[in-house]
Design goal:
Blueprint (H helix, E strand, L loop, with lengths): L2 H23 L6 E6 L5 E7 L3 E7 L6 E7 H4 L6 H29 L11 H30 L6 H5 L3 E7 L1 H50 L1
Antiparallel strand pairs: 1-2, 1-5, 2-3, 3-4
Helix pairs in contact: 1-3, 1-6, 3-4, 4-6
């Protein structure tokens, strides 16, 4: 197996990994996490936000009884969130997943690609979809984190909970965020891998072209003799 095919195998694995991680980040609810404390500063629960939904664990009495609530982010914080920005973030995430899927398919095709394949599935198209997925996912993270951190300004409990003496602390990025970050890294690395694969391919073509005149001269010499 030559170096070009090995590099495209790596591209396929990276694109597949990015697609899986982006898909996992969609339904999970750990883009932003926080700890809930009571008026005395004691930890009484936690709250998590995803792209679509979130969950809340709250200790409701001294006996340690806990209440778990799952919610849609829009329904729970309809007055606080900026709907247009969040809708754009959802769309960019979905398009990033599609781009990563297309990049995975094109990577697989390029492993076995020959001259009969159209340029629409070649290295340029492959690089485009990898770069597009990375850009879209980056936009998602910027929009969502700016909304969740900027709107709440570190306070992610509802008004009703704040009236009961609850507040949040330790607002941080959850693993859904880092899944998207990892997918951006993989898709970006793929762009470099594709460039490297094409460099190896062009180098091989140059060597083959240089060998043809030598073969021609050797043939002519034998004919003369």
């Amino acid at each position: 197996m030559n170096a070009v095919k090995i590099l495209y195998y790596i591209t396929f694995l990276f694109a597949l990994g990015a697609f899986i991680m982006l898909s996992m980040s969609l339904p999970t609810e750990y883009m932003v996490t926080a700890t809930i404390v009571n008026s005395g500063g004691q930890t009484t629960g936690s709250i998590n936000f995803g792209i679509f939904r979130g969950s809340k664990l709250l200790t409701t009495d001294d006996a340690g009884a806990s209440e778990v609530k799952e919610f849609l982010v829009f329904d729970e914080y309809n007055d606080s969130l900026h709907p247009l920005i969040v809708y754009i973030a959802i769309l960019t995430t979905c398009f990033a997943v599609v781009s990563a899927l297309i990049a995975t398919i094109l990577s697989f095709i390029n492993i076995f690609k020959n001259e009969k394949f159209s340029s629409a599935v070649g290295p340029m198209a492959l690089g485009f979809y990898n770069m597009l997925g990375a850009i879209l996912s980056s936009v998602t993270l910027i929009l969502l984190t700016s909304v969740l951190f900027g709107t709440f300004d570190g306070e992610v409990t509802s008004t009703a909970e704040q009236n009961l003496g609850y507040s949040s602390t330790g607002v941080a990025l959850g693993y859904s965020f880092w899944l998207q970050m990892a997918s951006i890294a993989l898709l970006s690395l793929n762009c470099g891998t594709i460039i490297l694969a094409q460099s190896y391919k062009n180098l091989g073509s140059d060597k083959s072209a240089a060998a043809i005149p030598r073969l021609t001269r050797s043939t002519k010499t034998r004919d003369v003799l």
